[in-house]
Batch of 2 targets.
Target 1
Amino acid sequence: MSHKSWDGTLSSTEFYVAACAFAKQWRKFNPSLPQWSWVTCPKRPWISHDNQVGYLSVENVILPRLSEEADQKGDIIEKEECVSEYEDEVVDTAVVVHNGGPGVHRYDFHAVYSASYRVPVLYFRAYCDGKLTLYSCLQLMLYFATLYGQPLLLDEIEKDIPVHSAELLIKSKWTFMTQEEHPELNRPWYTLHPCGTSEWMKLLLSTDASAAQSGIPVEKYMISWFSVVGQVFGLKLPFEILNLVGADTIVLLVSVNYGFVTFLVVCIWHLNISLTFADRY
Amino acid sequence: MVMDYKRGGTDAQQYVWGGAIPLQIHLHDSEVTTLPPPPPALILAPRLGYLPLLVPQIKPFFSSSLPPGVDTVWFEYRGLPLKWYIPTGALFDLLCAEPERPWNLTIHFRGYPGNMLPPCEGEDSVKWSFINALKEAAYIINGNCKNIMNMSQSDQAELWRSVLNGQLEAYLRVSSKLKLDIVGDDFAFKLNSTTSHSRQSTTDLDTTGTIRTGRIPVRLYIRTIDEDIDGLEDAPIVDSWEKISYINRPVEVHNEGKCFTLYDAIKTLLPELFKDEPSVDSNTCEAEVKGGQNSNEGSSKSTEERGEAQTERAGLPSDSAEIKLIRIQGIEPQLEIPFGWVVNNLMNPEYYLHICIYVKVLEPITI
């Protein structure tokens, strides 16, 4: 992939490489968390017999229970600290993290390659007490919608950016959760719509200084991707893993991980610039 | 799509848009509370439509018989809950090996299988699913969804209404604004330059029947048959969606001047099923196209016969599987037909071509 012309997408083979690299990086920096693994799809006579047909999966991720008080600004810092502890740790803050007792919400996350959009797509499901619960997904969506979602963002952003950009935000639908059939599992899963993915991936990785020499590094793709989509769930990558992607990208990724509003403003600012110079981007 | 809204589309498009499947809808036993039980509802379901859109027509037949409660409608064929986001025609082509007329379906108003199907709240859900598919197709064709995102409210409403009501002319009028060109205008224009009953000259088709380099939205449904059967009517019923493989992958076309045929398209999607095949001679393309044109306007039976012959030739067994049938919009097109023609004429309004393939598996597959 050449640096200047890269459009933020990758092939299915590149996705496989990126996914395996990400699983390794995650294991190295988050050994105590549930691990990502590649799930190979069952053999079919029309699929060539290689392991690349499949998806990346992490299961039984425990997200903190969300309390009503956490939407006040003062609590957000504490919440950010404890969301990175997934299992077996109880943190004494305003938001209590359960360590596996009853009523805990567990999540499965799958990163599945989309041949149409040529990017990974996030699919997820929630369980409570071993039973599949759609209700907790809805709760989660509602909670994050108020914190990170469009209504709040629009209020904040509209004050600072031109009207045209606000319209762009509405139209582009940055965070967009729906329920769809999982491409491999014949069951309905929740998913984040992929149609903006290539644009913000291009934004994140095109600024990478090392990319100018050797093309976009596939090994960094999933770190950047997960930084953004994980954000929707309050899942933040530890700083050490972000270090892997290089100094320039870090600026953007840090803003992604620790201030989604900042990230969006930056994105919109970039897009504004692209739009004035080109008919298409 | 063809930019020929003045004439209301090509012959084939008119056939497809006018195509409908007669349904005989039975209320599920568990929901019958009256004696005698209500008779089944008989309705015509447009091929290009979706089952939930028929509910307003169907419900009056059964409303007096339903138990109290909130409606959560779903359809079922021989025990298989039907995926409401798959167009009715594709469902029929896939699940009825031997076309069943009328197609007997069961309707449920209660007990939605939420662990199997995403929720459906009537027309809005179907519309959302349709627009989403259209966006995905636009992304595949153009590399971005801007044309869809930038549609005015009135255009979007008009587009949806034309699909809802099966109005090809209105559809072509609005969809032409989307600038989703798969085949070059040149090809489209020549194909429509004559009246509906004259024969096309092959010279119009052969030189310009080329598809642009790029990606074409295709949805492939592969039904596996693991028993030895004499005819399609013996095919075991599909009792689980595990027996169907769904492949949502665009066909990549590299226009090298040779005619890119339907055969070529399927081969690029399922190369493993064509391993023993020599490559198709592109000179046959021109002669076969005329045959393909004729058979489309003729009876469906002759098309099926020809289609079967072609399929047998193409689906030479690989190690473990062979193609028994390729069905698009209820017909079995000859595989030598230029893919551009197939796409232009047989695609659904969301710009996807839905292809049903029956594959005979020679080894049992573990599910």
Target 2
Amino acid sequence: MTKLMQDLRSAWRAILKRPLPWLLALVSLALGIGSNTAVWSLYEQALLRPLPVAQAERLVNLSAPGLKEGSTTNNVAGPRDDVLSYPMLRDLAVAPAVGRELVGIAGHRYFTANTAVAGEATTGGRAMLVTGNYFSLLGLSPALGRLLQPADDEAQGRRVAVLAHAWWKQALGGDPGILGRSVRVNGQALEVVGVAPPGFRGTTLGGQPQVYVPMSLRWELDPAAQDDREDRRSYWAYAFGRLAEGVSLEQAQAALNASYRGLLSEVELPLQQGMDAARQERFLARELVLTQGARGQSSLGQSAAPALLLLQGAAALVLLITCLNIANLLLAQGAARAGEYALRASIGASRQRLARQALIEAALLATAGAVLSLPVASLALHVLVAWLPGADSMGLLPESGPSSLSLTLVMALATTLAFGLFPALQSMAAAPLAALRGEGPRATGSRAAERFRAALALGQVAFSMMALALAGLHAQSLLNLARVDLGLRSEGVVGFAVSPDRSGMDGASRTQLFETLERELAALPGVRAASASTVPLLTGSTWGTDIAVRDGPTPQGRDSPFYNLIGPAYFQTLGTTVLQGRAFSAGDREGAPRVAIVNESFVEAFELGPSPVGRRLTDSPRLPDIEIVGVVEDSAYNAVRGPKPPLFYLSWRQNPGLREMHFYVHTDDPYGLMAMIPPLLARLAPDLPVERLQTLDRTIDELHDSQRFVTALAAVMAVLGTTLSALGLYGMLGYTLALRQREIGIRRALGAAPWQLVAMVAGRVGRLLLAGILFGMAAAIALAHLGRALLFEVDNRDPAVLLAAMGVIVLAAGLACVVPTRRALAISPMEALRCH
Amino acid sequence: MIVQLRQLDRIHVQAGLRVPVLREIHLDIAEGEFLSIVGPSGSGKTTLLNVLGLMDHDWSGEYWLDGSAVHQAGARQRQALQRSAVGFIFQHYHLLDDLTVAENLELPLSYRDLPSTARRERVQAALARFGLEGKKGLYPAQLSGGQQQLVAVARAVIARPRLLLADEPTGALHSSQGREIMALLTELNREGMTIVQVTHNPEFAALAARTVELRDGVLGAA
Ligand SMILES: Nc1ncnc2c1ncn2[C@@H]1O[C@H](COP(=O)(O)OP(=O)(O)OP(=O)(O)O)[C@@H](O)[C@H]1O
Ligand SMILES: [Mg+2]
């Protein structure tokens, strides 16, 4: 014990004697490990963290891929394959497998809702429809009151709600008196019966709700819902189950499919009208697929996965640079102390004793590094989550789980021990006699060791170059996204939405309101055109429905193309060119012949030939055909990236009963207009809030949030990496030049002018830089190629980006070299030679 | 006179104390002379040599080197003067470890404006003259002390300095090796090179035409 104290004290003294290398190593460690912890925390939250529920590993998600005729709507909880119809969900929940292989099956679906507790301000957000067994199947207990129960979700549903813990805390200050009070969800009053447990944010990452409500209330609460309570051809509900003890996922899937097949053939098939034999076969061949559900249901993690992986990769690189730094700095340190080690050995200290001291020094460094990296990580996380757009929509929190913290510790220990102890041991192994003759630094500063250090520095430069180049490529990608030809105008266009049925307006008055709005908006000063649109553009939302060309083939996989219900001035408002035929007119209303407009991709996908105008579409055997009256150019629909989808447009006036409507207005003065819209609406429909009022440009920006997130993080990594490399270069050069004092003295005595010495140093550093840059560039190009899915129309060898990255490296290296070089040259040759 | 020192004082500041190391040095060295400087350890011999070799400029007094007033020269001029006139031999050879013999020889030439063919010729000539041809590709660590000092001498004269300064050139050598080096210096001197050597060896000191002695920084005849 006293020996340990003694060692500790002497380690401390050794550190104090030469604090600079230790300090640099410490800073490197804290930055490298802190940034890794931060990125890992996000990665873990988005992709790895299981739901905070009992035995999450036994949860399984249901997916029902295959032919789905009718209507499907999906959201971030999962793709179209995953959604079930409500009747099917209820049937499956009572299938024989439930109670045997599965403990239960629960359903959920979030929807956008304006939520307010009496007396408080209304907040826009989400509400989550859940089946009565949702909470009990997850094994959750309430923070307050009770959670929803099966009895709440029977028939018409009880008008009750459970608040999300975060919202309760945030909006209501955690008021325990909330129980029994009323919460208004989209204008409907519900009784608050409980608060969900803290930390539980629903089963969909990116869909965190404010309140949980019984699923059977859907048709009262969600104005966007169609009347599809009993419709087996309307797919919208997400479902998950819990495996019974000892049952495997495959067993449960097989058992559940037995019921599913029966339901398909006996209940659903008879309902599918006009289905030909081939399609019937496809319909019946459908099977449920069960997948691991420990992390809930969300496609957000999946879509963010490549980006997060890339970030993790970048963070790993920074860690590698940190390791190289530690190695380089401590190697130099060890070399400088070779004489000390030799002296100690010559006065009888054993190898073990020396090794132990080195170990203690490394452990001290590791501990300090780990401790210091925590505030760095926390700061980085807060900055990332608060400042980077996208983190919010992913619901990422600035917190590190236990796995992140243990990772920090492991990283700190591993890096310092592997990269700190090794050099110390190596310098101890240096011939003690040579070291004692005062040739210590020269002995370990031999050409081999110097080459090793140069290789380390080269590695750092290579990695920084790579990180910089990748950050640059992503920034370029972001720029390109901003420049995409959307096929529609975003500049000067303002959008907003209204949901008049939330204030109890009937269908006829809603239609009236929409028409009035189109007219009055167009009459506002500065407005050039205005139109309704049922689909909010460029938000990821899609509407799809079955449609076929009369006497034409239905292309595979295009059973339900996307569509939009629009007003007459839609194309004019959004600057989309009508190529053939005409746009809609106010006369295309209920009672008039049904008409449609299709885009070029639709013409191609449905093989409509050179003159699509006049061809007929059919969407239901009960309804008359729809005549194509126009063809428009392709335009972006739900997203900016990717090919523009086949689209058809219908006149909203021919589809009465719409609950929610978006409006787009093209104006000379978007911000002036945005101020005029609420008063206009207040005049036309008092109490009807204006929703999602913003410029279309802003909407597009939001769509790029995740790309910006990646770019910003990659940039942070690049800056970190470059800083660390510069530190490393500084350390290496400072040390090398100190070792080379004698050489510099000799050279000066032999007639070298200072500039010639500077040129010598620059030449050495330059060669190293050049090699590092080339390696880093090659690695960046290869990585960018691998991750090309993330890059939008960026050449992975973009010369401007690569040159800029190179410039940054050279600049950083130059700065890192100035001080050691000046210091080395300031020593008089006389002085340098006197030492020997 | 190639060297004229007048009233030269050199003061070291050590721990805040001003320690005079050279006091009122008055020294004339004629062109082609061979001068030995002797004296006890710490008397200022190396310091004097550094002043003569323009490695040190922190002194007061007057110093004419080859007709130029060093005491009035700026850093650039001193540098140019040193390059054109001075060669050094050190007690510890001070060869560069990671350069070969030939590369060490070429080093002084690389700091002077010489075409590379001329450089190679001179290196070749020096290798031949000093009998180092067989060793040109070796590194210093592969040579004996005597051989290393031989290379150092060759390196010191390769740029054809007018003034060769040798600080205990034999100090680290066996006497037989030392004699060889001294023979070499004598020969160089005969060829017309002015040589100033510092030595503790009375036998070697006697090889020079004139010997001066430093005691506590004061110069006197030996
Ligand atoms: N940089 C310095 N700072 C302070 N004092 C110095 C410095 N260099 C030399 N001295 C002092 O100047 C005096 C003369 O040193 P110098 O090296 O010239 O002696 P020397 O005659 O060459 O001795 P030796 O025979 O041991 O080589 C010594 O007392 C020495 O301690
Ligand atoms: Mg001396």
